[in-house]
Batch of 3 targets.
Target 1
Amino acid sequence: MGRVRKALGRPVGIGVLVVAVAAAGLGLYWFQPWKLWQDTTVREALPAAVAPSASAAGTSSPAPEPRTLADGELISHEHATSGTVRLVRLPDGSHVVRLEDLDTSNGPDLRVWLTDAPVREGRAGWHVFDDGEHVSLGRLKGNKGSQNYPVPAGVDPSRFTSVSIWCDRFDVSFGAAELARA
């Protein structure tokens, strides 16, 4: 114990201790390992059709329903991931990407990406989604449950063939789904 106290009493020892504590703090901030044990569940309903307005004759036609244009099953990449992805056109002409029964790990800076990259199994698929064209639909709302992500106006969803749960911090896919057109 005397050697440690003597070393820490010197300026070099104090400097090493300060650097070690700072490095540990930065590592914790960067990796955020506690998120592996934190789950956030989101249960959003698919946006509903707008109620029809009554016509002058007092009759109304049923509101058009949302229509699934493409869908696919999530496969695991960096972390075990499962669930279904649907690309849905809403009655107003807008589009949403819907994640249903999502189950993945939580992590730092997770995003939902609409991409043109092929979905590959295993490590070959971990890093391909930022190679081509992609659109970030926003931060992942929760690592479990069902949730909706609006496709920005002006983006043609037919140009994209897959969806990735993307970790922006480490440039890696947690999981992805190939979109099969309906």
Target 2
Amino acid sequence: MRTGERLPPLEIAVTRTLVVAGAIASRDYQDVHHDAELARSKGSPDIFMNILTTNGLVGRYITDHFGPTAVLRRVAIRLGAPNYPGDTMVLTGVVEAVDGDTATVRVVGENGVGKHVTGTVTVTVPSGGAG
């Protein structure tokens, strides 16, 4: 881990199944996350991913890079453009700071509409961990 280190991009296909499964797994039963007709009636072109699914994907991105011993200490994200089925979200990250075995990583997830998610993740990787 070093300041300025760029994490390799991760492409995630945003499928209808991913959107619905993420909503169900996080017990978010808002109709805009599973019912396309109701989502359209509320002004959205389709169902869209919820923040809890996005949060989980950001966490996966970090732990996939830093390895199985990585511990997420803080995840602070903000949503922007929706993730609709049929699009691809590309996550990228840059290590902003390192303090011993702990790093702060700036994460951005973009799709065909724009920036879906931005934020920072603080992760601790005990000595001997991947990265």
Target 3
Amino acid sequence: MQRIALTGVGAAALLAVIGCGGEEPEGGGALPEEETAPQAEETSPTTTTGDAEVYVLNRYGDENGFDDRRPTEYVATEFTTFSDMEWREWSDERARGEGGLLGTWCMDQECQNDPYDVEVELGDPVEADGTRYFSTYTITGYDDDMTDEVRRALEGADDGRLEHPAAR
């Protein structure tokens, strides 16, 4: 699959999408684990099995990214962002949730203003510097408004791969 480089306009638009609709953690980085996990657990039902010490590298409000679990706002790759996420499960092998999906691949459809409703599963944990990260995502349920053309654009954008430190 061919990667698409963001131009100045595309990068600015992506940053505008990323910067909208949420507050950055104080200090610009991740909040301590004990502050982030309870908030997510209070807002959505979850099932946890094993030690559930698997994270995602989230670039929401921080271009360098930070370790996160059960993020409500999740910048997964330079092309794809999940918003208003509610996680039903976060285990040591997979995470399942639902929320909005948007990215550079759907800007022509103005998805930054009206994200597609999706169900998503994160999987394939990999280890980097002693920390485990989910490395893939699969959309398991699509919004009725999401055309086959838009689905192909999503798949072509990052092929279901999540950014993580081991991939750098």
